[in-house]
Amino acid sequence: MALPITYNVRNVRVRWQLTLLAVVGIALVVTTIVFLTAMASGFSLALRATGRDDNAMVVQKGANAELTSGIGRNAAQVLLVDPRIARDDAGRPLSSPEILVVASYPRKADGADVNVSVRGVTPRAFEVRGGLRIVAGRQVQPGLPEVIVGERVRERYGFEVGSKVSIQNKPWEVVGVFASEGSGFESEIWGDLETMAEPLRRQGGYQAIVVRLADPSTFEAFKNAWENDPQVQVSVSRERAFYEAQAGPIAGALLGLAGFVGIVMGVGAVFGAMNTMYGIVASRTREIGTLRALGFSRRAILASFLTEAAILAAFGGALGCLLALPANGISGATNSANFSEIAFAFRVTPPTLFAGMVFAVMMGIVGGLLPALRAARLPITTALREV
Amino acid sequence: MSGNGKAPMVAVEGVKKVYRRDAEEVKVLDGLSLEVPEGDFVALMGPSGSGKTTLLNLIAGIDRPTAGKVVVAGTDVAQLGESELARWRSRNVGFIFQFYNLIPVLTAEENVALPLLLTSLSKKERRERALTALKVVGLAERSQHYPRQLSGGQEQRVAIARAIVADPKVLVADEPTGDLDSKSAEEILALMETLNRDFGKTIVMVTHDPRAAQRAHTQHHLEKGVLSL
Ligand SMILES: Nc1ncnc2c1ncn2[C@@H]1O[C@H](COP(=O)(O)OP(=O)(O)OP(=O)(O)O)[C@@H](O)[C@H]1O
Ligand SMILES: [Mg+2]
Q: Are A110 and A213 in contact (CB under 8 A)?
C-alpha cells in the first residue's frame, strides 16, 4: 500500500535547493548539540574517578576535597582492620592510602603557571582504583625519586619519559606515562607514597584512603560505623559519588545548557523544516491528487511525506554530525576541587552521534507532520485542479 | 440504454452536485441522469463551466454527489467509505488527465507500475505488466526515460499505459488531447479507439474538440448541469 522510499529519496535529491535551508538548519542544531554534549561528557569524565561501585572513599570528616583532608596514620590503621574491606590472599586489605600536594608548572601552550596535583600512592593503587594503565615507560620503583605522569600532563606540560620535574625543589625523573580512561587522574603526577611522604611533608597521615569492599551492599553499614566513630573522624562516600559531587554542578549545568540550547534551536529548526515541507507539499499538490486518484490511501500519502521529512532531516543530521566530528579530542581545562587544573578532551562518542541523528529525524517528523497531514487531507478534486 | 438488457457499466441517476462557496451555493449538476453501456466510448461535450469535469469525477469515484446515485461497474460509489473507495478506484478506473500527471521523479516504467503497488503482485510481475502496458502504447523502448525526456504525446501514452496496467473496466479521460498538437492528438485518439475496440474498455471522455468527440460512439452535451441533445 505504501509508496516506495525511492520516490521520496529522488524527490529530496531533485529538489535539493528547496530543502537545503531546512537541511542546514537541522545540521546546525545537531552540530551544536553534539558539540556541547561532547564537551559535557569529556568534562564529567575528567571530574570523575574511573569509579568502581565497590570502592569507598574515606576522607577527613567534613572535607569535600582531598586536598583539604587529613587522616592520621593511626586512624587509618584502626579503620583498615574493618572486616568489610576486601583482602588479598595474604590477608592484606585492598586499600589505597594516598597523599596529595599541589605543584605549579608553566603550561606548554602559553607559559602560564598552572597548579597540578601530585599524588603519592602505594603499589596497590592501580589495582584498587582500577581503570589505570601505563601507556609509555614503566611504573615507579619505591625508594627512587621517580614519578609517572598522566597523559594530559605530558600533553600540556611536555613532561616526557626521561625528563625531570621539580617537586618541592627536588628533581624527580619521569619514568612513565599513564592513562585512566579519561578521568581526572590523567591531569596528575603520581609517585610512590613512602618515597614522597617525607619530601612532601606528609609523614603524619593521608589525604584519602580508598578501600575495596568485599560486598558492595555493606557500604551503608561501613559508612555508618566509621562516620559515627569519634576516634577516627572521617567521612565515607562511594568513590564515584565523591568525584561526581565535585563535577556535579558544572557538568550538570553544561548538559542542561546543551539541552536548553538544543530545544531552543530545535524549535527553530522544526519551524524551518515545517516551512520547507509546506513548500514541498504545495509544489506537489497535483501529484498528491493524482496518487490519491490512482488509489493510494490518505495514510500512504501521510506516511510518504513524513518519510520524506525524515530523510531530509537525516541528511541534516548526518551533515551536523560531520561538522561536529572535528571537536573530538579538542581539549579544555577546568579547576578541580583540589585547586589544580584538570584537562579534559571533548568526546564525540557514537552514542552522542546516534542521539544527534535521532534528534534530527525527530525534528524532521515533527516539522513534517502538519504539512503531511495537509497533503493527506486535501480533497482529490481540489488537488487535481491545481496547476 | 443498454439494448441487450445487460446492466450499464455506468449509471448516473438524478445526480445533483452543489458547491458551497462561502454563503453562496453553486448548483453544478442539477438532477442529471446518464447511462453508459459496457464497451461504449462516450464523449462529454459542453461549454466551459457546464460541469463536465464534475460529472467525470463523480463517475471516477473521486468525488461524491450531493444527491442521487452513481453506479459504476455494479458498485454504488457513494456507499463506499473513503478507503474502500480508494481500493475500488485502483481496480476499476483508469485515469487519463489533460496534463498527463506523471510523477516527474519516476521513470516511465515506474510511473506505469505505480497502480500495481496497490496489488499483491511481486516486483517482477509488476515490471512485466508495466512493460506489457508500455508495449501496448508503443513505448517499450522508452521504459527507462523520465517524463521530462519525453514529448507531450509520449507522456500521454505513458499515462495511458498507467491507466490500463491494472486492467480496469472503465477509463475516464478529461481533455486527453487538450494539451497536444493535432498529430499527437490523433495518435492518442487512435490509441483510445484501440483500447475500446480491442481491449473492450468502456471510455468516458470529456473534450472540447469536435474532432475528438467524433471518434467516440456516443456524444452527450452538457448545458448548465443537465444533458441536452
Ligand atoms: N471545488 C469547487 N468549489 C467550488 N466550485 C467549483 C468546484 N469545482 C467546480 N466548481 C464550479 O463548478 C462549475 C463546473 O466546473 P467543472 O470543472 O465541472 O466545469 P467543466 O465543464 O469541466 O469546465 P471546463 O470545460 O472549463 O473544464 C464551475 O462553475 C466551477 O467553478
Ligand atoms: Mg473541466
A: no
Using an 8 Å Cβ cutoff, are A213 and A84 in contact?
Answer: yes
Q: What does the block give as the cell for A24? A: 542546514
Q: Which of A7, A287, A294 sits opposite B90 (nearest CB)?
A: A294
SS3 A208: strand
In chain A, which residue's Cα lies nearest the Cα of B123?
A4
Task: Say what the pLDDT of residue A96 is.
Answer: 94
| Chain A residues closer than 8 Å to B118 by CB | 1, 294-296
Is the residue at B20 inside a domain? no
C-alpha span between A290 and A284 (Å, rounded): 10
Residues of B within 8 A of A295 (CB-CB) are 86-87, 89-91, 115, 118
Nearest residue of A to residue B106 by CA position?
A7
| Residue B169, ligand 1, Cβ within 6 A | no
| Residue B70 CA to ligand 1 centre (angstroms) | 19
Give the C-alpha separation, A12 to A6, whole Å: 10
The whole-number average pLDDT for the span A22-34 is: 88
> For position A48, what pLDDT does the model report?
65
CB A281 within 8 A of CB A374: yes
- Provide the domain limits for residue B112: 38-64+74-228
User: CA A117, CA A102: separation in Å to the nearest integer?
Assistant: 5
Nearest-by-CA chain B residue for A380: B62
The response to whether residue B47 sits with its C-beta less than 6 Å from ligand 1 reads no
Q: Is the ipTM of this complex over 0.85?
A: yes
Q: Is B109 part of any domain? A: yes
Measure the CA–CA gap between A201 and A197, rounded to whole angstroms: 6
Residue B8 lies in a domain: no
Does the structure show a pLDDT above 60 at B55? Answer: yes
Distance B12 CA to ligand 1 centre (A): 18
Cα A38 to Cα A349: distance, rounded to the nearest angstrom: 7
Model confidence pLDDT, tens digit, residues A331-341: 777 776 667 77
> Based on the structure, what is the number of domains in chain B?
1
CA atoms within 13 A on the CB side of A41: 18
What pLDDT digit, counting tens, does each position of A221-239 carry?
Answer: 999 999 998 888 899 999 8
- Burial of A81 from C-beta contacts in 10 A (0-12 / 13-18 / 19+): exposed
- Which CATH number does the domain housing residue B92 bear? 3.40.50.300
The protein residue with its alpha carbon nearest to ligand 1, atom 18, reads B51
Pocket test for ligand 1, best of B18, B20, B26, B222 (most atoms within 8 A of CB): B26
Taking an 8 Å cut-off on Cβ atoms, the answer to whether A381 and B57 are in contact is: yes
B92 occurs within a structural domain: yes
pLDDT of amino acid B1: 45
Please give, rounded to a whole number of angstroms, the shortest distance from the CA of A335 to a CA of chain B.
58
> Within an 8 Å CB–CB cutoff, is residue A90 touching chain B?
no
Residue A181 backbone phi and psi in degrees, to 5: 60, 35
What predicted TM-score, i.e. pTM, was given to this entire model? 0.75
